[in-house]
Write a structure and sequence with these properties.
UPF0223 family protein; 65% helix; UPF0223; globular; 89 residues; mainly alpha
Length: 89
């Protein structure tokens, strides 16, 4: 499926790529599986673009509304597991 990713018009092309890659990995964690270390690396790049926790929550909510996928739950699982691959149910 194709989802609408939340984008800010003030971001550079590189920043947009980081954000889209992060949300794409969240999508993959639900639909297939993704390496834990890849999600961690993408989240670090995402945080360079969106350092504010409140803006992060807003973007997460927008993405969840459009896709049904929770970025928060994926990241929470990434923090508590030692599994090499993440597959959400």
């Amino acid at each position: 499926m194709n989802y609408h990713y939340p984008i800010d018009d003030t971001w550079t092309k590189e920043e947009i790529i980081y954000v889209v890659q992060f949300f794409s990995l969240i999508e993959q964690a639900y639909e297939r599986k993704v390496e834990r270390k890849v999600i961690i690396a993408a989240y670090r790049k995402f945080k360079q673009v969106v350092p504010s926790k409140s803006e992060e929550k807003k973007l997460f909510a927008t993405f969840k509304q459009g896709s049904g996928y929770s970025s928060f739950h994926v990241l929470k699982y990434v923090k508590i597991t030692e599994d090499h691959f993440i597959k959400m149910k």
